[in-house]
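FORM 12-B: Structure-to-Sequence Request
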């Protein structure tokens, strides 16, 4: 079976890739299993050196990887470069973390009690199409640092950067079999990875629907699972905020990556007393978003990933929105930046659109803001804009969400934990926290009697 990979900005084929089936997935797991004893035995300093070499190779091939990602996902090239830069930083970070993830000694009677952080074995990594290389690196870095071997399954729509990264892994000197990339349908090879008895853990990023199913499928082998799922995050703007700054930033918190971002602040909650003023700033800022050719250095938003996805996104907007932007003519899976006025009960405010559509929702006071923000099954991200520091912290503590920013919309950093509450998943990626999800704690008591 051959897969045709398409450029969503031109609808032209980019590459033909052989798709794997269950047999090839089993072979990949067998290779990872065979490579595990050797990889876990690599001295920590050497494992760190290999990860650092990989980070350096990503930097050296940064432009090439950014172009692959830009063409395959339709990302603006400037954003793709920043993402690849983060991939290198992630490998640098986890190179540095290899020998800083320690066990402990615990005071007990009659001997010495110590803990070890043991690698799990073969880890399956399943990633989506919106940030293919970035999200793969968030999983690869800590998995490899802890001494696991991996099978990485990229999304069918965007396998190209993972395939190129696998070549760089070998060029870095990481032994054959430690990182295996398998391209194929999620319902076939993804599911096989989840059910495979020789796979110890699945780290998944994708939709809440598939995550739910994956948890069930992993139950048969009591597989460890971490899930980074969907979101419907709130951008809460109080009347005392720097409204111009909040409004200038808000479009990029929804329309970056054409809204195909799990952290998208796609519900913009605005205190009623500042609503009209904020809205006029917001419309102006949204009008200024530059939508167009992803290869153009100045472009800020590209197309959606596919025609089917555009269909799904457009189903959320009926009637006249508050604002609808412009898009380039066909070909390309374009969808305009769109602002709609909504109540939190409307479908556009309840479901993840995963496209450039923001629901603007008024609120009366702090209590109502918190209630509306939390009135969602998701809990991934969010922002709070206010000049009142005590309120900022009060609201931050009250929101049921994993990653928040105050007077900012940025929530992803290499050294800080990232992950969701509620149906946005569980487990944390990035920072030192991620290492806990790729290792098992072993407790050993040594009698001194
Ligand atoms: P998806 O759930 O359709 O697919 C994700 C991956 O799972 C793909 O590689 C797919 O092939 C695979 N898959 C599908 N069915 C499977 C099965 N039965 N068993 C095993 N694997 C299977 O998601 P998508 O459409 O690629 O990505 C968009 C979703 O990802 C959105 O919901 C978004 O919010 C979420 N996402 C979450 C985060 C986060 O960190 N929380 C980050 C990015 C994207």
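FORM 12-B RESPONSE
SEQUENCE OUT:
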């Amino acid at each position: 079976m051959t897969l045709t990979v398409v450029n969503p900005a031109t609808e032209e084929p980019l590459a033909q890739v052989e798709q794997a089936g269950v047999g090839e997935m089993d072979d990949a797991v067998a290779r990872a299993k065979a490579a595990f004893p050797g990889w876990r035995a690599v001295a920590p300093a050497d494992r760190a050196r290999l990860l650092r070499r990989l980070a350096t190779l990503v930097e050296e091939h940064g432009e090439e990887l950014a172009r692959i990602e830009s063409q395959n996902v339709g990302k603006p090239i400037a954003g793709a470069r920043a993402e690849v830069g983060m991939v290198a930083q992630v490998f640098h970070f986890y190179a540095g973390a290899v020998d800083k993830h320690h066990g402990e000694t615990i005071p007990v009677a009659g001997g010495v009690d110590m803990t070890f952080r043991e690698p799990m074995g073969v880890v399956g990594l399943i990633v989506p199409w919106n940030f293919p290389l970035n999200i793969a690196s968030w999983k690869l870095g800590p998995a490899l640092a802890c001494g696991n071997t991996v099978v990485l399954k990229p999304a069918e729509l965007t396998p190209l950067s993972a395939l190129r990264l696998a070549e760089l892994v070998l060029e870095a000197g990481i032994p054959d079999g430690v990182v295996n990339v398998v391209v194929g349908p999620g319902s076939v090879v993804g599911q096989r990875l989840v059910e495979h008895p020789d796979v110890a853990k699945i780290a998944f990023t994708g939709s809440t629907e598939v995550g739910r199913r994956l948890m069930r499928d992993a139950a048969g082998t009591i597989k460890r699972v971490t899930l980074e799922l969907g979101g419907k995050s709130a951008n809460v703007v109080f009347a005392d905020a720097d409204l111009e700054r909040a409004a200038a930033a808000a479009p990029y918190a929804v329309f970056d990556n054409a809204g195909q971002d799990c952290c998208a602040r796609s519900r913009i909650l605005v205190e009623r007393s500042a609503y009209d003023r904020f809205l006029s700033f917001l419309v102006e800022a949204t009008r200024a978003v530059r939508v167009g050719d992803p290869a153009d250095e100045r472009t800020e938003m590209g197309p959606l990933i596919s025609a089917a996805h555009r269909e799904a996104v457009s189903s959320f907007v009926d009637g006249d929105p508050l604002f609808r932007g412009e898009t380039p003519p066909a070909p390309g899976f374009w969808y305009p930046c769109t602002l709609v006025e909504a109540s939190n009960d409307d479908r556009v405010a309840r479901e993840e659109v995963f496209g450039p559509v923001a629901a603007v929702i008024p609120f009366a006071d702090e209590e109502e803001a918190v209630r509306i923000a939390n009135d969602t099954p998701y809990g991934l991200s969010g922002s709070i804009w206010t000049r009142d520091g005590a309120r900022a912290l009060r609201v931050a503590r009250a929101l049921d969400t994993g990653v928040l920013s105050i007077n900012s919309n940025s929530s992803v950093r290499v050294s800080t934990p990232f992950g969701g509450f509620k149906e946005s998943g569980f487990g944390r990626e990035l920072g030192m926290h991620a290492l806990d999800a790729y290792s098992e704690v072993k407790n050993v008591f040594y009698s001194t009697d």
